[in-house]
Amino acid sequence: xxxxxxxxxxxxGKEVLMRVDFNVPLKDGExxxxxxxxxxxxxxxxxxxxxxxxxxCSHLGRPKNEPDPAFSLKPVAVRLSELLGKxxxxxxxxxxxxxxxxxxxxxxxDVVLLExxxxxxxxxxxxxxxxxxxxxxxxxxxxxxFGTAHRAHASTEGVTHFAEKSAMGFLIERELEYLEGxxxxxxKPFVVIMGGAKVSDKIEVLSKLMEKxxxxxxxxxMANTFLAAEGYDLGASKIEGDKLDLAREILANAKxxxxxxxxxxxxxxxxxxxxxxxxxCTAPFAEGGKVPEGGMAIDIGDKAIEExxxxxxxxxxxxxxxxxxxxxxDCFAKGTKEIAEALADSSAISIVGGxxxxxxxxxxxxxxxxxxxxxxGGASLELLEGKVLPGVGALSDKCCCCKQK
Length: 405
Ligand SMILES: Nc1ncnc2c1ncn2[C@@H]1O[C@H](COP(=O)(O)OP(=O)(O)OP(=O)(O)O)[C@@H](O)[C@H]1O
Ligand SMILES: O=C(O)[C@H](O)COP(=O)(O)O
Ligand SMILES: [Mg+2]
Fold this sequence. Notes:
alpha/beta, Rossmann fold, six-stranded parallel sheet, 16% strand, binds adenosine-5'-triphosphate, binds 3-phosphoglyceric acid, cytoplasm, Phosphoglycerate_kinase_sf, Phosphoglycerate kinase, Phosphoglycerate_kinase_N
């Protein structure tokens, strides 16, 4: 059933809790890509213009369920304030007396940003008490955090059980419209490129995606786990040791289904994880290549870049989530840059999803040549799987009796 959207709410004079995904990349306290903040602006402006008293909440990174200044949303409040051209009061707590006082003093058209919801153990546990406290006196809830809509957490799912009405914002609406439309029956060959660092989060999704995709190109830390599962020597690379059996299962599954599952033929190695470090490519693994002792696979190798690019050239649809290497440092960025460029040059429908992947697309100036940049990485993959995202499924159904207008 269709879900309520912000257009269906009468927000004038009401306190509205809005979940956004302000999980933006930070370097030395500076935001390196504000795309996720910019993407939330239409809904924020719409609610403020409608006279709401707007309380924004988000997570940032993966703190250990307790306050950690490295994951504070304070710099985000500053940036949001600049983008909106109006004061955004930052509240250094998400619940409790300080948050309550700040919320009680709001006037219509005011906006505050609460501190990182993941500073509280109740968030990821989806604890009803935490959800209730977070909702506070707000009766309306708006979710526009597409990037986190695949998580059933207190601020995405839990709060909907206590709000009178829960609606989606324009960002979620736009993402669903595009992604559901393009990914339900993707034009073939359909290539999924996966990389990045969240291996255990995303490895399970791979088997399910085999029903839809013809080819998988695997890079980043994700590839290390598969290469290790194949028995190759990966030195000191980032590997998820407890996922090796699962990786083998996925490889066998792909073979049985006739799905092309392409691991990097070679990898780029560094002996030191630092900016400006020297790197070299291994020989192809099939020819006895290996990562030397103490070395780290930090990017896909030159032969892998060549093979991946050729496959991208012939694709009709490509979904890319997860950088091919640690692209944040120029010395480890070649694979991600060249794959981004191959995608930009291809005539395929190209969808890039994920906070860091979109940051990479922007860094390598290919963003405008892609068909769609999604703010969600894991979320877009789960959508492709055909799942109802918990943050969307929990919103109020649209029906004549629950419409306010
Ligand atoms: N070989 C590697 N070793 C270690 N880290 C890697 C490697 N390759 C990529 N990474 C890191 O992966 C991170 C991004 O992974 P991530 O899975 O978060 O992608 P994403 O596009 O942000 O998706 P999501 O939105 O789901 O988080 C980057 O910060 C990058 O440095
Ligand atoms: O960057 C993301 O994919 C979202 O913000 C969700 O973050 P998470 O994977 O830490 O839940
Ligand atoms: Mg990320």
